[in-house]
Design goal:
The protein has 379 residues and is an alpha/beta fold. The chain has helices at residues 9-28, 65-78, 91-99, 114-119, 149-156, 166-171, 192-204, 206-210, 231-241, 254-259, 279-287, 327-340, 349-354, 362-373; strands at 54-60, 82-85, 105-108, 123-138, 146-147, 183-187, 227-229, 245-250, 263-264, 266-268, 274-275, 313-321, 323-324, 376-377.
Length: 379
Amino acid sequence: MNIVARRPWAAIVVAAVAAIAMVTACGSQPSAKKPTPKPSPTINDQVGNPASSVTLSEAGSSLVEPYLAALAPQLTSAYSNITLTPSAGGSGVGISDAATNLIDLGGSDAYLSDSEMTQYPGLMNIPIAISAQEIAYNLPGVSDLKLSGNILAEIYQGKITKWNDPAIAKLNSGVNLPSATIVPIRRVDSSGDTFIFSSFLSATNSAWNNGPAFGTTVTWPAVTGELTATGNPGMVQAAHATPDSIAYIGISVKSSIQSAGLGIAELQNKAGKFVSASQATITSAVTNSAQDIPSNLAQSLIYEPGAQSYPIVNYEYMMVQKQQKDANTALAIRTFLTWAVDSSGGANATNLASVNFIALPSNVLLKIKPAIGSITSGS
């Protein structure tokens, strides 16, 4: 017998009504609210010659200044309404003046610290090339010298004071080191070169890392006979004028170091090998680190692994405000930065070689281009 047929009609109707009510109730329940997606940052990839003349003021790093000086006339040749006026003054000036809108672009060998990013939320650090730093010395009679970060830290702490100290002699077997007193020279201005040099010392000497640490300015230990200088040209001049001295100097003025008759030390890298700064050794350091560059583009290239890696390598940064005063200036800055990192523009082999820089790797360029595109104006 059919079981359904035995059910009373009233019961069937009640059951059907209940089922309809249940479906209706379920359908009337509000669906879960989806989170509102965050708006994507405004990207403007427009570049080109502005409608009217724009002069981009730049100040900062004395390491990057020779490079920008070479780029300036070429930029105007490519874009007749854009003029770049670079000047030195130190990376500290580049950061602070760009942060306070005193200049359009700030040159710096140092990336923005976490505290600076918090203090200046609209300020970006955009790499345009890769450079390095060399350790120059004025030591009559010595043409080959090997040094380590640990020894340099002890020299600049006043713990190693003589050129024939056993620690230096151990690294330089067969070299006739004099008993002369070492004269360390350091930057007196707020300097990106100080930032990268002190970063190297921090990476290789725990006492330095726990003491002065690193920055564009540090509290230098008092060392008898030490000297100070301003800018890379000042460091070259001071070292040239002072026998038995040692100085940290940006590679962009290498020709001046050589013209001054100064020696350049081989440095011990993380693998324990002694290397000089060259395109190959700088590239090795970049290859072993640049793939990890964060989205804010602030990264150290100091003391990277690799048997051929030079230990004092860094990005050259342009500090720039994301929000510009007008559309014409924003266009000029985007155009300059896009041209400056392009291998067919400012970052051509001739320009880079003139200051011993190397080009940015492709994976870094992929992150730089959106950053450049985020430079806009409110008008």
